[in-house]
Structure formats: structure tokens, C-alpha cells
Amino acid sequence: MTRHSKNNTALGFFTSAEKDKLKGVYGTKSQRLGRDSQKPFDCCSLCLQTARSPVICPEGHLYCRECIYESILQQKKDIDNETRVVNTHNASVETEEQKLARLEEEKKLENFIHQETKMVTMEKAESSTKSWVPHYFVPELKQETQAEQLKVSKSTPQCTAGKNPHAISFKKLVAVKFKQHTSGTTTTTSCPVCLKSFILGVSISILKPCGDAICKKCIGKFIKAKKCPCCDIKCKEKDVVDLVIEGSGFAGAGTAEAKKFTTAFN
User: Is residue 182 classed as helix, strand or coil in its secondary structure?
Assistant: First the structure.
């Protein structure tokens, strides 16, 4: 064995070389996702393809109109089915409780008749007062488990594109208009005001009244006039929705990160 420090593993402390060797085996591993692993700004959050007839939710998540409509209708159908199952179960729980109450009343009546019609000797009376637990299963002494009532997990369709799901409906969706700019043989999506191309890292805002997609810098300049700079439709600051973008692919922007949890080294 050589005397090199990386091969000297008989020390009384854990060296950095030993930590580097165990990085791929033990501990939590994390890695930032690059540009190739992030969804482009104009892609649907469900099908991950370029959005056809794009719409956004109130929180700024982009969808295809067909995809989000299908998702909302399917969620409504699932909610109706779940509600029907929960109502059926809760109705059965109530009838079961009523049945147990009726059986308990019948048992009390039988015990009363038995005590009134049969003479009980003193010995049996004394033995009956003593606590006695059988060593085998007796159906009459088993513990009854009461069924609990269920609740519906959600009452409205949810948008699950973000970390915190929120309610969504057809009325809250806003149609988005992306401006196509042609330069020579290439066609890019750009801001209709400054003609700046939309790429990952560019903040994009959507105006609810008209659906125009404008970069955030131009929105800050023209929103004070309380009208859209493209179509002159009246709008306010509350009508501006920021389009959610995963990141720019660079280390300074975006929070997309992949983690893998493994056994920690002790």
C-alpha cells in the first residue's frame, strides 16, 4: 500500500477524499436541471407540447385549451363518482348505527324477561358478580368496530401544475395571444411592443382583458396608462398575470432541481 494521502484510510477522522468516494453511494444527491430538462415557456403543462389554442389559469400556468378542458371534465366526473360513493357509505354507516341500537334494545328486553321469569339462586348470583373473562372467543363479548364517515377529498377541479394546487374552472381561463415575428427565414415568438424574442429567462406577463403576451418590462412602462399598448383595451394592475416559467437553465435563475434520497453515512 502506498503512502499517498488518498489511500491512507487508517486515520482517526474522515478525510475529504473518502467523502468524495462515498458521494455516489451514501447521502442525498441533488443536481440542478439544465435547459434541456426544462419545459419551454410556450409548452402545455399537461401534454408538454407546444400549446395549441393556449390558455392560462389565474396563477399563470399555460395549457392547451383541449388538454385543460379534458382535465377539468375528467376531474368533475371523478368528484361526482367519489361523492356518490361517500354518500352511499355514510348512509350505510347511519343505518348500521341504528341497527346496533335496535339490537341493544332487544338484548336489554330479553335480559329483563329472563330475570323476571327465572329464579336465580344465591350461588349463581354471587358467581355472576365476580369478574370473569373467558380464554376463548365469544361472539357476544367481541368489540364492535364502528365505521367512520368519509369526506370528499376535493369539491372543485384543481390545477396541479404548481407546488400548491388551486381551484380552476372554465370561466377563470384566459386565452393567450402570442405574437409571431418573422426575421428572414426564422419565425420566433416575441413581445409585440419591443419585439424582443421570448426565451427561457424572459419574464412574460398576460393581460386578462385581451390575452396579449407582453414582456414584463414593457408592462411596467405602459400599465400606468391603464390600457393595453397593443389594442388599447382598458386594463388595471390586477388584470396582469405573470406566466410561470420553470427557469432559464442557468445557475442564477430558476429553482428546478432533482434530488435523490439514499441512506446516510454514519
Answer: strand
Kindly report the average pLDDT of the chain as a whole number. 78
Sole residue written with cell 442557468: 250
Q: What is the DSSP letter of 61?
A: -
Instruction: List, for residues 77-118, the tens digit of each pLDDT value.
Output: 999 999 999 888 888 776 767 778 888 888 888 887 777 776
* pTM check: above 0.70: no
CB burial of 174-195 (b: ≥16 within 10 Å; e: otherwise) equals: bebebbeeeeeeeeebbbbbee
Rounded distance, CA 219 to CA 227, Å?
10
Cβ-proximal residues to 139 (8 Å cutoff; 6+ apart), any chain: none
Report whether pLDDT(3) > 80: no
Q: Which residues pair with 54 in a beta bridge?
A: 64
Most confident of 95-99, 124-128, 204-208: 204-208
Three cell numbers written together for 214:
407582453
Residue 50's DSSP bridge partners are 43
Nine-digit cell string for 37: 430538462
